[in-house]
Design a protein that fits this description.
coiled coil; 0% strand; rod-shaped; mainly alpha
Length: 155
């Protein structure tokens, strides 16, 4: 009986040991597992967030690069348009200058022609005057000769 009581006591002690020591150890082990799982989940979430953040940054950089390329293209197109406009303006200036030069040459030629015509008219007038003077002189000489001849016949 004593042995039974001792055995029973031993069993109770073992049970107490299980309840007092082993169960808390098991509980502690379970807690550690849960903490590890939570840490792993947190790490996975953090990695996912970092991946999302990196991909978002990359997308933003791509968008910025695309926008910068588009802006550079637009600036190049604007510069080309400005250069074309400047070339057109220069061509217009050259054309206007050329037309002005042509009109100036035409005006000079007209003036020269007018001057030549005036000179020709003056020369013609001078020739006519000279012819008239010669005719008058011839007429005067003819009159003088007639007078001389008629007075010689009278004498």
């Amino acid at each position: 009986m004593k042995q039974q009581q001792q055995l029973l006591l031993l069993l109770q002690l073992l049970l107490l040991l299980v309840v007092v020591v082993l169960l808390p150890l098991r509980f502690l082990h379970l807690q550690q597992q849960q903490q590890q799982q939570q840490q792993q989940q947190q790490q996975q979430q953090q990695q996912q967030q970092e991946t999302l953040t990196i991909s978002t940054i990359c997308r933003c950089m791509l968008l910025l690069q695309t926008a910068a390329t588009a802006a550079a293209t637009a600036a190049a197109a604007a510069a080309a348009a400005a250069a074309a406009a400047a070339a057109a303006a220069a061509a217009a200036v050259v054309l206007v200058s050329g037309l002005h030069g042509i009109s100036m040459i035409a005006m000079q030629q007209q003036q020269q022609q007018q001057q030549q015509q005036q000179q020709q008219q003056q020369q013609q007038q001078q020739q006519q005057q000279q012819q008239q003077q010669q005719q008058q002189q011839q007429q005067q000489q003819a009159r003088l000769q007639k007078r001389c001849c008629s007075s010689a016949q009278i004498h």
